Amino acid sequence: MDHNYTVTIIVCVISMIILAIDAGKNTIFNKDDIKWFRITFILAALGAICEYLGVLADKTNFCSPKIHWFITFSEFCISPYLGVCLARSSGMKHSIRFMLLFMTINVVIEVISLFTGVVFYIDSNGTFHRGCAYASYLIFCAIDFGYVLFVFILIGIRSKLRYLINILLITSIMIVGNVANVIDSNINSGYMSICVTATLLYICVQTIMRHVMIQTINMEKDISNHDALTKVLSRICFDNQVTIIDKEIKADPPTIRFAVCECDLNNLKIINDTFGHDIGDAYIKNCCKAIRSLFSDCPIFRIGGDEFVAIMMDDNYTNLEAIKENVFELTETEMKRNCSLAEKKSFAAGFAVFEPYVDKCFNDVIKRADTEMYQHKKMLKSL
């Protein structure tokens, strides 16, 4: 008996047992996927044990022909199911029931072979022989491998081809190992390749699921950070930014340089009541577009239904006076423009600069900007 083969099978069986235990721990799989991975690992371990005992019986006659027959029968029944279990573990659900029923036909044929020896038989010396219908077993295995290949390609496509090459290489391990065993029965690589495939697939599918989860989290984070209507930064993002700035102010106030502009849209309630909320939403978007053009490189936040805040730092802070001039010029021009309220881009604006020896936090700055904004609103209404 080849000692290398013995060690390999022991390692494979122990690996499958470990994975069967680990499948329910520290994993992102749901309960069904965990169950099917456990079934796969347990079947792979049982199949590997049966294969090894069959080879051992063939070479050493350590058991009676009847026990040898039953061991081989168990191996031949398990093998075609493994691919289907791997496919189900990977998330395939739609065709699994049909494939499981289809592979049951192989079990029926193997039961018939127990009494007739059409697929395989064990002679009186305890030696394994292929029967006249051995090809039926190979056909079921081929269909099983083809199905696995189809499912794995589908998984690769669903992952936007990111993991397609990895999955195809993982599949090739199982196919090469089993084809080699079919071509030469002395090459006992069938279950070893299945165990390796199951292990790598377990890792790969979790990697794919983590990638999808991270994408979903990032997408939801991006949605929460941006206002749905105007696409500028949201109130949540504004609150986070204020927290960051307050920490910087607390740490070293003299090194902090920023200015704030608070903008408040004019006549939004009148527009909503007169023209409807759809026109009101369009008005908000048009005003926001104008604000964004004035503060092109600044973070802009929608902090309320008609309120926006721009934070000016670096170059924008240096160009503060020019920005203020452009803002006040636009707001006065829009207020005087001869058109309906809904067509205007009308808003009041108030500016405030952080004063390190006066302001204790961001809120002190925004209060001054708020005061100036209301003074500007009164001035615009007088126009």
Quick structural summary:
The protein is α+β, with helices and mostly antiparallel strands and 383 residues long. The protein contains 13 helices and six strands.
* Sheet with most strands: 4 strands, antiparallel
Shape: elongated
Number of helices: 13
Order of helices and strands: HHHHEEHHHHEHHEEHHEH
Low-confidence stretches: none
Please give the share of residues in helix: 55-70%
Mean pLDDT: 88
Helix-strand makeup class:
alpha+beta
Proportion of strand residues: 5-15%
Sequence of strands across the biggest β-sheet: 4-5-3-6
Evaluate the radius of gyration: 36 Å
Distance between the termini: 101 Å
Number of strands: 6
Description of the structure:
This protein has helices at 3-22, 31-60, 65-89, 96-116, 134-158, 164-183, 190-225, 235-251, 268-275, 277-294, 314-318, 320-336, 362-382, and strands at residues 120-122, 128-130, 259-265, 300-302, 307-312, 347-353. The model has no long low-confidence stretch (mean pLDDT 88). The chain is elongated and about 110 Å long. With 383 residues, the chain is α+β, with helices and mostly antiparallel strands. Strand 4 (300-302) and strand 5 (307-312) form a beta hairpin. The N and C termini lie far apart (101 Å). The longest helix has 36 residues, at 190-225. Helix 3 (65-89) packs parallel to helix 5 (134-158). A four-stranded antiparallel β-sheet has the order 4-5-3-6, with helices on both faces.
